[in-house]
Amino acid sequence: MELQVFSELQKQAADILPTRHIGLGELVAVDGSFIDSVLSMTWAEYQTQSNKAKLHLGFDLTHGIPKSLILTEGNGAERPQVSSLVQPGQTAVLDRGYQDHERFDQWREDGRHFICRIKENTHRTTLEELPLAGGSPASFDAKVILGVPSGRQTKTPVRVVGFESGGVHYLIATDRFDLTAEQVMLAYKLRWHIETFFGWWKKYLHVYHLFARSKNGMLVQILSGLITYICCWRSTATKTIVSGCPSAECGNSATKSRTRPASSSAPIRWDHAAKRSGNEGRSGKYMQFPNRTMLVRRTNYNPQKSWLNNRPAN
């Protein structure tokens, strides 16, 4: 029942919330997160002296909300879950723990796209170097074969884009030859939103304080947290008039509401906008979620009666 409610709310929210980064297609970040369990939860196998469950989550980067989930034991493999969390036509955005050359080929056969960071020591056979735009932050763009013939090697050539950020060198493998190198870089950087979501979700919704020990009971508790998050998003879209900065990064200036990227990850928070933000003369408040900040104007809003005033302190 809870899963049906979550699925229906997710669909409704996706229809209401602004669509971002349209030129990148439908992006779904996939990652896993451990949930501490107790030894009596025998289904949550992890190590001899500790049990953990693992939540595998598909996060809709196009709308900024959770999309799909799978709950397994702590030892549950992450890579096989991608085919269930990402539908054909969508693009999975993955960290290097999901690098699997055989699955790269399988996902392409199934119609699923991928943008995945790969390890720097991955053997690459360059078939063709692709041109870079002048002044591009990318240092490498080529069509390659990953792996060696004696081991696991991709049967179909993939594209690898290299760039450096914060002193760290990144190699991103993808089958999206339709994107520019800069768009591939942006799509991978958007993956961080699922990390900030996990941090916010654990800290402020307290969904990992166990109320049940069965697998089904834990799933109900997780779904309750996801439903709460989506309801918050849906409420801001249907009950507010949102204004902000329409930028190229938003992907579409003609969306139902305009947003701007958040300067930092934070819980839901109301801030008086004038002096703190430098937006003198713009009455309203900033509502900050893990992956965006919005200036929200509400009619008949009474800050003394808002349930958000009972939130945990930052």
CATH topology of one domain: Transposase Inhibitor Protein From Tn5, Chain A, domain 1
Helix count, DSSP H or I runs of 4 or more residues: 7
Oligomer state of the chains in this structure: single chain
Strand content: 25-35%
> Would you report the number of β strands?
14
So, the CATH homologous superfamily of one domain? Transposase Inhibitor Protein From Tn5, Chain A, domain 1
Largest sheet, strands/sense/barrel: 10 strands, mixed
Order of helices and strands: HEEEEHEHEEEEEHHHEEHEE
Label the CATH architecture of one domain: Alpha-Beta Complex
Helix share, percent? 25-40%
Low-confidence stretches: 239-289, 291-314
Distance between the termini: 34 Å
**Shape verdict:** globular
Task: Characterise this structure.
The protein is α+β, with helices and mostly antiparallel strands and 314 residues long. It has a domain at 2-198: Transposase Inhibitor Protein From Tn5, Chain A, domain 1 (Alpha-Beta Complex), CATH 3.90.350.10. 25% of the residues lie in helices and 29% in strands. The protein contains seven helices and 14 strands. It has helices at residues 2-16, 82-85, 101-109, 181-189, 192-205, 215-238, 274-277; strands spanning 27-36, 45-47, 50-60, 65-73, 91-94, 113-118, 124-129, 138-146, 158-165, 168-174, 241-243, 270-272, 285-289, 292-297. Strands 1, 2, 3, 4, 5, 6, 7, 8, 9 and 10 form a ten-stranded mixed beta sheet that branches. It has a four-stranded antiparallel beta sheet with strand order 11-14-13-12. Strand 13 (285-289) and strand 14 form a beta hairpin. Helix 1 runs parallel beside helix 6 (215-238). The chain is globular, with a radius of gyration of 21 Å. The chain starts with a helix and ends in a 17-residue tail after the last strand. 32% of the residues are buried. Mean pLDDT is 77; it is low at 239-289 and 291-314.
